[in-house]
TrEMBL record:
<feature type="domain" description="HTH araC/xylS-type">
    <location>
        <begin position="430"/>
        <end position="529"/>
    </location>
</feature>
<dbReference type="Pfam" id="PF12833">
    <property type="entry name" value="HTH_18"/>
</dbReference>
<dbReference type="InterPro" id="IPR009057">
    <property type="entry name" value="Homeodomain-like_sf"/>
</dbReference>
<dbReference type="InterPro" id="IPR020449">
    <property type="entry name" value="Tscrpt_reg_AraC-type_HTH"/>
</dbReference>
<dbReference type="InterPro" id="IPR018060">
    <property type="entry name" value="HTH_AraC"/>
</dbReference>
<keyword id="KW-0805">Transcription regulation</keyword>
<dbReference type="InterPro" id="IPR011006">
    <property type="entry name" value="CheY-like_superfamily"/>
</dbReference>
<dbReference type="InterPro" id="IPR000160">
    <property type="entry name" value="GGDEF_dom"/>
</dbReference>
<keyword id="KW-0238">DNA-binding</keyword>
<feature type="domain" description="Response regulatory">
    <location>
        <begin position="2"/>
        <end position="119"/>
    </location>
</feature>
<dbReference type="InterPro" id="IPR051552">
    <property type="entry name" value="HptR"/>
</dbReference>
<keyword id="KW-0804">Transcription</keyword>
<keyword id="KW-0963">Cytoplasm</keyword>
<keyword id="KW-0902">Two-component regulatory system</keyword>
<dbReference type="Pfam" id="PF00072">
    <property type="entry name" value="Response_reg"/>
</dbReference>
<dbReference type="InterPro" id="IPR001789">
    <property type="entry name" value="Sig_transdc_resp-reg_receiver"/>
</dbReference>
<dbReference type="Pfam" id="PF17853">
    <property type="entry name" value="GGDEF_2"/>
</dbReference>
Length: 538
């Protein structure tokens, strides 16, 4: 920190220099002056942070110097010295914002205390000024971002006219006061997860730039990007009549669609007269956008044209329990037909509204998911690491995509249940096979007996057994008995009729027929041939 000493007596200046350890106080004496005129020149040249100056000096006194520099942009802090105890001088010194008024002879400790106090004040002011200037620069550099944040808050929260006027003045904007219409411009491609962040930002900038060019003839329009990455267009004053609003939105839609080959949907609010009602406009524009899934291609949706579902309008009759039962039974064809019929009815009644349709879709999904829990499984088992079906449904913007999402939920659950059933049925049939193997000698082994053993109805077991083994129950048992008989003929001394009875055949003649059909030889021939072969080997 730099210090200038001003006194008409050289000895006093010398004593001031020697009586204080200025280096210890981090202060450098950059110059001296012997009168007020010389002091002014030194202040102009050296621009010191602090001046210790005598009041009474020739040609120009200290009070006059303070008066002349009081409006200077680099005005230093002044500590006055005087040998005269006069209230008038002290009063004038304070008038020109002097830091203090010390009487000669000066005590070094008193001077040091005052210098330290003034130095700290200078540092505080410097820091405050630097911080303030830095903050002002940052605000100027980020004014567009701050403006966009304010506009996003405005359309979400009610503000009184006074607060809005102050905000508009800060951002250098004129606040219209007679009419407001808000349009939200939604571009599907901005939500495309396959696009890189760089591509998304470039597309967003291009969309904003094109919309600004289209509306450049409307200087009082306000255009900004919302937190949801939709483009908000606020039309005011003379540009809020329905014809102008439609023309403006059509120009934007056509330009974006033609130049960028993208689908554009614009939701338009009603006209309001109070700027504090912009949150209502925002809700209406968003509600209008929600109806885009009833449309194909780019479109403009005015909230005033959308008949939102009211009490008393006919609802679609949906038998949610029947859908769940069909899914539980694996009747996917019936489910597919029922869902197609439901969505045909929805398309025919757009007046049902977005919220109603989404609720229907969620209820259908809920009825499907209830089947999972009834069967003792969890949602995580069925969908693995896939998206939550409810979140998936809520994210759909078009009725076709919504229908497909509901169908996907049913198909995923059906595939899971069928897979589990297949595994369970395979285990059941294997259990039946094991039981049959253990009961081959039982001539009373019947389909009914085995179905009871595996706890399954006679008819369903018969159907399932044939489905999974590709042969009837009786054919399977006869083959198993014949195979077992072959083993006994090869390994035992039993006669043929004894073998037949041992494997459960009641009629030896029938056994002989079955054996010959399967192995090409009668049991007696097979036994004789097998015995001869063994004898030859011995």
């Amino acid at each position: 920190m730099n210090l200038l000493l001003v006194d008409d007596e050289p000895l006093i200046r010398k004593n001031l220099i020697s009586s204080v350890d200025w280096q210890k106080h981090d202060i450098q004496i950059v110059g001296e002056a012997g009168d007020g005129i010389e002091a002014l020149a030194k202040i102009e040249e050296l621009r010191p942070d602090m001046v210790i100056m005598d009041v009474h000096m020739p040609r120009m006194d200290g009070i006059q110097v303070a008066e002349m520099i009081k409006d200077s942009p680099y005005k230093p802090s002044i500590i006055f010295l005087s040998g005269i105890r006069e209230f008038e001088y002290a009063q004038k010194a304070l008038l020109f914002e002097a830091e203090c008024y010390l009487l000669k002879p000066i005590k070094s400790d008193e001077l040091c205390e005052m210098v330290e106090k003034v130095k700290n004040k200078i540092w505080r002011e410097k820091y405050r000024d630097e911080y303030s200037n830095r903050l002002k620069r940052q605000i100027a550099e980020n004014l567009d971002v701050l403006r966009e944040q304010f506009l996003n808050r405005w359309i979400r929260n009610e503000m009184d006219a006074g607060a809005l006027a102050e905000k508009f003045a800060f951002f250098g904007m004129d606040l219209p006061s007679d009419a407001y219409v808000l349009a939200l411009i939604d571009v599907e491609q901005l939500q495309d997860a396959n696009r890189s962040e760089e591509e998304r930002q470039m597309l967003k900038y291009t969309i904003s730039d094109l919309a600004r060019k289209v509306t450049s003839h409307q200087p009082d329009r306000i255009l900004f990007v919302t937190y949801e990455e939709q483009l908000a267009l606020l039309l005011t004053g003379d540009h809020t009549d329905s014809g102008t609003v439609t023309d403006t939105c059509t120009s934007i839609m056509n330009t974006l669609s033609d130049v960028l080959d993208i689908r554009v949907t614009i939701g338009v609010s009603r006209l309001v007269r109070n700027p504090g009602q912009l949150p209502t406009c925002f809700k209406e524009a968003r509600e209008a956008l929600n109806h885009r899934f009833f449309r194909n291609g780019s479109s403009i949706l005015h909230i005033s044209d959308i008949r939102v579902k009211q009490e008393g309008l006919p609802e679609i009759v949906i038998h949610y329990e029947n859908l769940a039962i069909s899914l539980k039974q694996g009747n996917t064809d019936l489910i597919s037909t029922a869902l197609a019929d439901i969505f045909v009815q929805i398309r025919e009644q757009p007046s049902l509204g977005y919220d109603y349709v989404i609720t229907v879709a969620l209820r259908i999904a809920s009825s499907f998911l209830s089947v999972i829990h009834e069967l003792g499984y969890t949602q995580e088992e069925v969908f693995n690491d896939g998206p939550n079906p409810y979140i998936e449904l809520l994210g759909q913007k078009h009725i076709a995509d919504l229908q497909r999402s509901v169908e996907t939920v049913s198909e995923t659950i059906a595939a899971f249940i069928n897979g589990k059933k297949s595994h369970k049925n395979a285990k059941t049939i294997q259990k039946a096979k094991d039981y049959i193997e253990s009961q081959l000698s039982n001539s009373e082994l019947t389909l009914k007996l085995v179905s009871e053993e595996v706890a399954m109805s006679y008819t369903y077991f018969s159907h399932l057994f044939k489905q999974l083994t590709n042969e009837s129950f009786s054919d399977y048992v006869n083959k198993a008995r014949t195979k077992k008989a072959k083993e006994l003929l090869e390994s035992s001394e039993l006669r043929v009729f004894e073998v037949a009875f041992a494997v459960g055949f009641k009629d030896p003649y029938y056994f002989s027929q079955c054996f010959k059909t399967m192995y090409g030889l009668a049991p007696t021939e097979y036994k004789k041939k097998h015995s001869n072969r063994e004898g030859g080997e011995l």
